[in-house]
Amino acid sequence: MSLRTPLGKARGLGAAKEGASSHWMAERLPAIALVPLMLWFVFVAIIGNLDASYADMVDFMRSPWNATLMLLTVFCAFYHGMLGLIVIIEDYVHHHTVKHILVFGLKMYTALGSVLAAVSILKLTFGG
Q: Is the model's pLDDT at 13 over the cut of 70?
């Protein structure tokens, strides 16, 4: 006979067993960061430079403020997208090996894409 309540017995017996709150927080933090970053990206970086030439964009990106915000936007967007797609893969792919291969491939794509974007932004910022 146990003195534990039914809720106490049920804790930790969900699908994730543990760690779900940290994953939930990891998904929400870049989402919150993306709100002001996307507003800046749309209204300042895109709409503000609609008729800009390449030289104008290089001048825009040479500002440390703009380059930093662009890098943060790229990294947050890639990370947030990766986390969302991992959840989809874990929910809908039931074969264990295929699931791990897809998650690994997604992480490699995210790393490669974010590094390529960062190199492009830094080339514009420093090299023109």
A: no
- CA angle 112–60–41, rounded 5-degree value: 60
CA distance 72 to 121: 11
For residue 116, the model assigns a pLDDT of 98
Per-residue pLDDT at 75: 97
Q: Would you say 66 and 45 are in contact if contact means Cβ atoms under 8 Å apart?
A: yes
> Does residue 26 contact residue 76 with C-beta atoms inside 8 Å?
no
Secondary-structure breakdown of the chain: helix, strand, coil percentages, each rounded to the nearest 5: 80, 0, 20
CA–CA distance, 91 with 96 (Å, rounded to integer): 12
Residue type, 71: L
Residue 74 has pLDDT above 60, yes or no: yes
CA distances from 51 to 54, 58, 68, 111, 117 (A): 10, 13, 22, 32, 22
